[in-house]
Amino acid sequence: MVDYVLRRLLYTIPSLLGIVVVCFFLTRLSGDPTDLFLPIDASEEARDAFRVQYGLDKPLMEQFVAFFYKALQGDFGNSLRFGEPAISLLAERLGATIQLALATLFIAVGVGIPAGIVSAYYRNSLLDVAVRSLAAFGQAVPTFYWGVLCILIFSVWLKWLPTGGSGGLVHLILPATTLASTLVALLARVMRSTMLDVMRQDFVRTARAKGLGEFTVVMRHVARNAFIPVLTVIALQFGVLMGGVIVTETVFSWPGVGRLVIQAIYARDYPVVQAVVFFFALIFVLSNLLADILSAVLDPRVRYK
Amino acid sequence: MRHLRSPVAVTSLIVVGLALLATLAPGLLAPHDPAEQSLLARLAPPSFLGGPEGHFLGTDQLGRDILSRIIYGARATLLISIAAVVISCSIGTTVGLVAGYNGGRTDALVLRLIDMQLAFPVILLVIAVVAVVGSSVLTLIVVLGVSGWPQFARIVRAAVISVREMEYVEAARAIGAPAMRVIFRHIGPNVLSATIVFATYELSRMILIEATLSFLGLGIQPPTPTWGGMISEGQKYISLAWAASVFPGIAIASTILAINMIGDVLRDALDPRLSGEDGR
């Protein structure tokens, strides 16, 4: 077990290295970084001064090592717009994003899992067909469009909920529902198909044969076992969620990290873009790692593959 | 091809056919010039809901015809998505074929590369690159295309490994066929169906990503109409007129849904073994 986790930890190193490389080359893609960081009409002296100040006159390899060393400490330089360190801007916005992500997971698990269970248990019934069609539909509709539709229906027409911004729980409902939409659909699909796999197994027949109630069989024996692969999917999707966070926060003007990065892109505030890209990619890699470790812990078969 | 005659398949084919027609010859379908403004008829509701004649789906904040803009908007989305899938499919299939056929060190290297790229969130990569380089059609195609190859490589590699040791491949090798000929002539066609099915799903994923980018203002820039861009513009006026943001979204969702349905049909028709959750 420890062996597996250690090996898996080792595998994340190239990924992390890859992320740093991408972040590093991001500002060098267009050739001269001073084009990005300084105003267009900056003088050649100002450019030279900037290069010396940030070590851009050094060899690329040396620059990379410096960047790497600083990135590991969370230092991406100061925001060009606010003059504060990029990382503290990110930290300020992090709370709102975490709030959104947790609410999303809560909704996705709370709706997707029961939907999958019911759909599998009554398979090929009208209910199952309804859940499956809704799930197919949920995955086809872009997150931002769900958001716009939610605003139209619940804010503009029904006037129940605010169109955006942050505040109390009422502000959280629409963004979290929107962000959860694809995840609900995915979880329902995965839960349904793993339920079907487990339901055919011998121990389920045994459980029924020894006279357990139908509810106990489904919940204790089938759903619990079917949930293991689903848990892995949830951990994996947590990283994917970060892309959706950017979109959802933009739609609802939610003051989180996703909105920060979009505003930073519009304002060409590259240190902030680098910091957020690095942060999101880190979450992505870590949630992949978590997914693998979780499935190894919960399902011993994985460890020996 | 009895699968293709189901009502779902026929509807999906019609939707995709219309989208393709709009991509190739939008002028044939669109009732108006997508850039033509009419300041007297701004934010008009659809004509079937009492809006002015001639604007079937209403008009946007500049009085431009929404239906025509949706039709012209298909071009950016579909061209970029199709080209991106072609690129990622070509790279991925070639890499997968070579890695799967050769095995050994090539294979190990390719696997690590695949893992490394899959560990990076695609949408983030695209946003980051577009943010710096800017968003031309070419940039979007290349970035999306390069981002998608690992999945193709993975699928093709697995398919190659499953047929590599079959007797007919051995026979081809035994009569002295060169490796390239064995790979492309004998193994290639057998991994084709899995690739086609996957390419279909991948197309709808690319459409989703392109729409998301243009919604965020990182795709093709105005005044060229894009579906995502129209929704983003329309959201600003949503309390005054819902048509400008709702209809482009229906275009996106129905295109994606139709392509996914065609993918399901192709999967069932070409390779029943891939058929996942239904029918069990």
From TrEMBL, chain A:
Annotated ABC transmembrane type-1 domain residues: 94-291
Main location: membrane
Gene3D superfamilies per record: MetI-like
SUPFAM superfamilies per UniProt: MetI-like
Keyword Phosphoprotein: no
One GO CC term on file: plasma membrane
Annotated keywords: Cell membrane, Membrane, Transmembrane, Transmembrane helix, Transport
Organism: Nitratireductor arenosus
Membrane topology recorded in Swiss-Prot or TrEMBL: Multi-pass membrane protein
Domain of life of the organism encoding this protein: Bacteria
Name under which the protein is recorded: ABC transporter permease subunit
Localization: Cell membrane
InterPro entries: MetI-like, MetI-like_sf
Recorded GO MF terms: dipeptide transmembrane transporter activity
